[in-house]
Design brief:
With 339 residues, the chain is an alpha+beta fold. 38% of the residues lie in helices and 23% in strands. An eight-stranded antiparallel β-sheet has the order 1-2-5-6-9-12-13-14. It has a two-stranded antiparallel ribbon with strand order 3-4. It is globular. About 7% of the residues have low confidence.
């Protein structure tokens, strides 16, 4: 008798679990995907997520928090005040990004460096005025460059020279993706893709019940961003991805092409063989920073860093010895390349 009761109880419990699972699956299938887009940090964002209503207001509030902390174009941001040497306490966002940036700078021998802003400005704005910075000007600015020249303790940034300037542009978009992803996860959302200016975080599945697929654009000269031809497509789920490339950011001057990525150590635009560096990591801020560092380092030095970091995966498009485009990618990335 007791045995029969136990069997009945177990059967009822099993039926309850099955019914609950069916209800959850039906809800997952019936819950729509929201698609929000807008403009932030001087670029476009596209965010897709499965939820019964739009969370755009909340998402944009999170993005504005990042802007108020890290945007050098926002005169009232924390980083702008630090650059003006005002007495300001670093908030958590700035502290998170600064700490990670310093760690990656040390790991890449300074190839990634958030103090490179004066050199970037000299080359970028100089070309807009149709002049190239002189060797003397570059050498003078190099005295202000170096991640060791800034430190953070108890919420206060200290500089070895008050003229040192910080620019987190090569990590902030990735960090913002992480912030929005955290916001969505806090709402219980499991299926989403966050994309800000080409930096991406994905989770779960897309609206077709398939893994998220992200394309890597062919690196052809495309300063107007009109080329959408894909080099490859990656299955990217529960990962962050960032791409850095000079094929959309360059100048021609006197018949010579100058890339927008500046080598902090030489003070000049990089001349290495990597045309496009795509990095997959567990967080997008790291992917963003390492993608920039690898553009500066070149193929061989980038591979050496990857050897130390099995948690990172990379897809490089580079110019071989004959001037033709070639591809190298981490062996662990092979299974993610869509056929």
């Amino acid at each position: 008798m007791m045995k029969n009761k136990k069997i009945l109880w177990q059967s009822a419990f099993l039926l309850f679990l099955i019914a609950g699972t069916v209800i959850i699956v039906r809800q997952q299938h019936s819950t729509p995907y929201q698609k929000d887009k807008g403009f932030i940090f001087g670029t476009v964002y596209n965010i897709t997520y499965q939820h019964d209503k739009s969370l755009k207001d909340g998402i944009e509030a999170e993005l504005m928090r990042v802007d108020n902390s890290l945007s050098p174009f926002n005169k009232q941001s924390v980083i702008s005040k630090i650059n003006r040497n005002e007495n300001v306490k670093a908030d958590k966002m700035f502290t998170d990004v600064f700490t990670l940036a310093q760690k990656i700078s040390a790991d890449t021998d300074g190839a990634f460096d958030i103090t490179v802003a004066p050199l970037v400005n000299a080359w970028g704005f100089g070309f807009k005025n149709d002049t190239r910075p002189t060797r003397h000007a570059i050498d003078s600015l190099r005295q202000l460059i170096g991640y060791e020249k800034a430190s953070l303790a108890d919420g206060t940034v200290s500089k070895k020279d008050p003229r040192v300037m910080l620019d987190c542009s090569a990590i902030a978009k990735g960090y913002a993706c992480d912030v929005v992803a955290g916001f969505l996860r806090a709402k219980g959302i499991e299926n989403f893709m966050v994309e800000i200016g080409g930096e991406i975080v994905t989770s779960g599945i897309n609206d077709k019940r398939l893994p998220w697929k992200i394309g890597v654009t062919k690196p052809v000269d495309d300063s107007l961003s009109t080329n959408q031809e894909m080099q490859t497509v990656l299955n990217v789920t529960n990962k962050a991805m960032a791409t850095s490339g000079n094929y959309r950011n360059f100048y021609y001057k006197d018949g010579k092409k100058y890339a927008h990525t500046i080598d902090p150590q030489t003070g000049n635009p990089v001349q290495h063989n990597i045309l496009s560096a795509t990095v997959l990591a567990d967080d997008c801020a790291s992917a963003d920073a390492y993608a920039t560092a690898f553009m500066v380092m070149g193929l061989d030095r980038a591979k050496a860093v990857l050897d130390r970091h099995p948690e990172l995966m990379a897809y490089f498009i580079y110019s071989d010895g004959n001037g033709k485009n070639a591809v190298w990618y981490s062996p662990t990335l092979r299974d993610k390349i869509a056929e």
